[in-house]
Recover the amino acids of this structure.
């Protein structure tokens, strides 16, 4: 069972932003991509997402058309009503949640639409895919609020 081993990680993550940035700029992509599945699995074994929920409390995923269709159907709502009730267009033209925390975040940090959640949510925190390297700004931002991203980056920078 996952447990929370991340006491004090926020300060360490803040202190290590420069190291993370330098690592992401210089990383051997192939070596890192080979390590990510095991590091991702280790992180999820040691860190309980339900004890955190920062991603759902302070940030919104993009709700793509396929997400909107799937979630609306699951909630037995018309797509237009779902959009009007829960979503806004952001400055990039993406649909995002109107409110923070996410309107689907329930007690104990459980997601009320977990089986139908947006693709961004099911992929988050991207610690098992090339997004970690391809989008370093997102990775750096994520490391400031997600202990799993912090954990994976710490393991990666530890190996020189």
């Amino acid at each position: 069972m996952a447990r929370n081993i991340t006491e004090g990680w926020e300060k360490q993550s803040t202190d290590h932003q420069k190291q993370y940035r330098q690592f992401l700029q210089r990383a051997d992509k192939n070596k890192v991509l080979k390590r990510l599945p095991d590091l991702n699995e280790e992180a999820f074994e040691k860190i309980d997402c339900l004890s955190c929920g920062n991603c759902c409390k302070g940030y919104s995923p993009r709700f793509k058309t396929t997400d909107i269709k799937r979630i609306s159907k699951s909630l037995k709502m018309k797509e237009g009503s779902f959009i009007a009730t829960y979503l806004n267009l952001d400055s990039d033209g993406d649909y995002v949640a109107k409110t923070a925390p996410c309107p689907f975040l329930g007690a104990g940090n459980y997601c009320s639409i977990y089986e139908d959640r947006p693709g961004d949510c099911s992929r988050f925190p991207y610690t098992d895919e090339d997004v970690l390297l391809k989008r370093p700004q997102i990775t750096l931002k994520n490391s400031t609020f997600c202990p799993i991203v912090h954990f994976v980056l710490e393991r990666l920078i530890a190996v020189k």
Q: What stands out?
A: The two ends are 30 Å apart (CA to CA). The chain is about 55% helix and 5% strand. The chain has a mean pLDDT of 94. The longest strand covers residues 87-89.
